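Input record (one chain):
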Amino acid sequence: MCKQSETSRNSQLLEITGEFLDEIKAAQAENSVSSWVAGRTCWYDGYVPLSCSHAAMDGPSELTIALTLEDVPSVQVDDVDASDLPPRVDWRFLDPRGYPWMDAVEFQGLSFACLPFALTAVAESLARTATGDPTLPSLSEADLLFGSGGNCWAPFDDPRPALAHLHETGILTHEDWPFEGCNPPGFDTDKVRRAGRRTRASEIAWVFVKNDPTAARWWLANCGPLLAILSPARDFLLYRAGTYVPVLRDQWMGAHAVALIGYDDVRNAWLCRNSWGRNWGEDGCCWIPYGPEDNCGILAPKMYGVNRFSMVNGVKVDTPPFYTGRK
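The corresponding structure, as predicted from the sequence alone:
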């Protein structure tokens, strides 16, 4: 469950009630939107900070984030052969032995920790695919959040610190530093030194997708998940199933990071893994249209993955790059 009490560090709270659910359903009917189901999620009968909801935004087109990687080795994924892509990819169910390439969806709490949760899911999945070992341990969301200098209360506007941390310092395992909320116990530097940051990226991949899903679909089909940024409306809080299209278009939430873990050409939609627990959406996941209309800004402007690793689970490696195109 991710229901929250009224007590919060934020004084202005949005109460998620039956009245709010009725408002969403009325807007769906008024706009003839039947592609998704609104209902009780983990947020229902609880509170969400209004600062998560950026009511002043006119729409997802206002989402602009500087995402150049000047200090981190990176490669642009752009020149790809899309002639033989499968019509559907879902990284939750790709291993024939039954191992999950991705862990179960976790809950970020009442925090702005969506980016470290999404990037951790992407990194641990790509480490498993790069080595062919889906049994590798889970990685630490707390390390990407607090270890890179972040905190729960500052809305992210730039993923570069977390990407740089993953490249320069590496990331601990979840067991070494589990996410225990926004007021964690003191950072045990001796424990971190003993455990060591056991997974490190040597090159970041970025996909400039600007209204063209081809390169992102290629990466998902051939490599693994991607870090993506979308800008949904508040009705997203009570998404239960289907292909999400915002209907409360005067109530935008601002930037929200998710792990892009698949696509479906029949649906014409991306499969996204959120970090609001399994009692939200379709077991913690959702479908977002390819766009360019009604896609919550998910194509603006780039998506990120890890192209190569220099260390995986404490072992120094030089994994072959997923993509070998233009640098």
